[in-house]
TrEMBL record, chains A, B:
<dbReference type="Pfam" id="PF01381">
    <property type="entry name" value="HTH_3"/>
</dbReference>
<dbReference type="GO" id="GO:0003677">
    <property type="term" value="F:DNA binding"/>
</dbReference>
<dbReference type="InterPro" id="IPR010982">
    <property type="entry name" value="Lambda_DNA-bd_dom_sf"/>
</dbReference>
<protein>
    <submittedName>
        <fullName>Helix-turn-helix transcriptional regulator</fullName>
    </submittedName>
</protein>
<dbReference type="InterPro" id="IPR001387">
    <property type="entry name" value="Cro/C1-type_HTH"/>
</dbReference>
<feature type="domain" description="HTH cro/C1-type">
    <location>
        <begin position="5"/>
        <end position="59"/>
    </location>
</feature>
<keyword id="KW-0238">DNA-binding</keyword>
Length: 66, 66
DNA sequence: ACCAAATGTAAAACTTACTTTACATATTGT
DNA sequence: ACAATATGTAAAGTAAGTTTTACATTTGGT
């Protein structure tokens, strides 16, 4: 699964720590999702989408391997 | 988190087992998500949305407690 | 009423998300 | 060049998702 978190963060000028604080997770959680080390829960995806004012589908996309 | 899986399933006339088969998970996984026993991964949410031809946000919605 | 299919749960085992702590590297401003 | 902030990653621990097996209950058709 791909994601556009890094780009969305840049557009809102948020650091990983800022973003983590906003949605109540650790900075490492954001970093790990961003770098594809793990797949977030749907609750987390919805919260990220909420912060970025986008849909989950705009931020996360399936890949062949999923 | 609320979800509309039961309704979407009804609209497509799919049993829990049918749906499970389509996205490659067990029937219990579908049942557990549907009855709110647990929150699916974002990959699973995207696959469900794909089957229902809707966005993840149309199928899953945050609640206050999330 | 009977049978088949669908649904709700539950326990054990396994896998993966997430936290905390910690450190190393990179980037940016002055 | 220096200091501060941001990012990448790793290990250990805890919490949670998912599978498999199994059984009970409900629903629908005839």
């Amino acid at each position: 699964m791909k994601n556009r978190i890094k780009v969305e963060r840049a557009e809102k000028d948020l650091s990983q720590a800022d973003l983590a604080g906003r949605i109540g997770v650790s900075r490492q959680t954001i970093n790990s999702i961003e770098t594809g080390r793990y797949v977030p829960s749907t609750i987390l995806a919805l919260k990220l989408a909420q912060v970025f004012e986008k849909t989950v589908n705009e931020i996360f996309q399936l890949e062949e391997t999923d």
